[in-house]
Amino acid sequence: MSEDSSLPQHHVQSFCTRPPPPLSCPKTKICSYRGAMGLGNKYVRLNVGGNLFYTTLQVLTRENSLLKAMFSGKKEVFTDKEGWILIDRSGKHFGSILCYLRDGNLNLPKGRQAVQELLAEAKYYFIQGLMELCHNNLQGNKEQPLCEIPVVTSVKEEERLIQTSSKPVVKLVYNRSNNKYSYTSNSDDHLLKNIELFDRLSLSFNSRVLFIKDVIGDEICCWSFYGQGRKLAEVCCTSIVYATEKKQTKVEFPEARIYEETLNTLLYETLPLPDNSLLEATRRSYTNCGSHSEEEEAPGGPEPRERVRRIHVKRYSTYDDRPLGH
Description:
The protein is 30% helix and 21% strand. It has 326 residues and is α/β, with parallel strands linked by helices. The protein has 2 domains: 112 residues, Potassium Channel Kv1.1, Chain A (2-Layer Sandwich); 125 residues, Glutaredoxin. A hairpin with a 2-residue loop joins strand 10 and strand 11. This is BTB/POZ domain-containing adapter for CUL3-mediated RhoA degradation protein 2. Belongs to the BACURD family.
């Protein structure tokens, strides 16, 4: 007999390993509220959508609701292997539901969406008082818009808004379909940027400036600025360019110029009008970037007449496309 075979059997160790058992879902069992009471005489443990709550049976059965049916023996409940009672709902607002059941009242969460979510949970658990509380809050506290932007559909409507406004006016004409040529590759992106800038300005200055959208104008994308009922400046963002053998419409995004003209309209925000030196500083001629202004004096005197700065963002891609004299 060999030396190894003479060893006692209990000294021989096996190095074979077994694969781990496959993962499985937590085991659940069905019980009545009496099974839940077995978890303790005072508290009930709840697992609502992964959120854990401790509460008493008295709170859960206070109102005639689904919770009362679950914990009064009328409806079966599910528990996991650790004894937590499972409720297959989101636990985001379940704490608020327990607070309402305890106190009979609740400070509702801020925001219309949060109240609507709490209302949906109250309907599921059929808590009548909380449902009425949420309904009254939603009906009485309708969210007010941050700003209102009128969309004009006629020339008369536009004139009426401009003449009756006590604030300066900024108007954006946006009409993408008002084009007989194809657009350049960046034009759609620049159109969206103009609209986004209009939205940002309206949110920032809505208390001081009236912003108007025009969808019936002759231009594709054009900004107009008004003060004290008259037109102060205009920024046209479109031009016609040549691409190989065909014409295309090009849309620009002169963000700095639009910002400047919007700030200039604030000079006409209140009466009386600013002094002449300040107004003249904003009426300077723009000789760069293809822009121009009308700086003619009225006949018979040095006093300047009312003028409109028309800034056209226009670039010519070929020599033949330039008008005579340029």
